[in-house]
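Re: beginner question about structure tokens

> Can someone show what the tokenized structure looks like for a real chain? I only ever see the sequence side.

Sure, here's an example I had lying around. Input first:
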Amino acid sequence: MSDLRIIRGASPSRFGGVHWYEWKPKNEALVGPPAPDLVLLHPLPHDCTYFSVIAPLLAGGRTVIAPDYPGYGKSDALPGMPSIRMYADALIDMLRSRDTHGRVDLFGFHTGCLVATEMSLSYPAEIHRMVQIDVPYFDKAQRDGLLGSECATDGFVATYSYPCEERYPQVKHDTLVIATASDLLDSSRLAAAAVSTSHLLEFQEVSAPALENGAESISRAALEFYDRQ
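And the corresponding structure tokens:
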């Protein structure tokens, strides 16, 4: 029997309801007061269930929240074309409505890395630390090419429109970038180099799906980073 309680719910945002799953120890005495809530930010075109394997490994001593972006999973859709900033705004609204009692830690994968970056820049007082895994850090020429491809619809337009080379150097939060054996290995290295407060950790033995094949090693590295003094 699992020692975790899994709760499903929804919270309001300026764009409508944001659906989420939450994992936390059944024995709430195991949730340490110093441990900020941990927010998992999914890649597109997936939803928060993408974290079903790794989320329980991250929730041993803290509350873990995995929301669906607006327009994905069971969250309400946005009124128009999405942007990374709109995703960040909606998730901050969701967290404020839940009353997370202080700053949160962020854990982003692929598109989730960009959402984490925007949350840290737009709402710096509400973010503690970030882990970013396999970052789609594309320069303008790469983004223009991707925007012209057939897959550039909805959330992918938001991803391919995000000016990484402008936003990442502004990050001031302590950030761990994890790179796996994926097509984003080099771009993850570029992202780490762009953030003065970042640390780069490479797991080149971990292949896709990274958060399943590397769940143990990635969760261990993330928790060590979040919990260090």
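Each token stands for a local structural state, so reading them left to right follows the chain. The CA atoms of residues 169 and 195 lie 5 Å apart.
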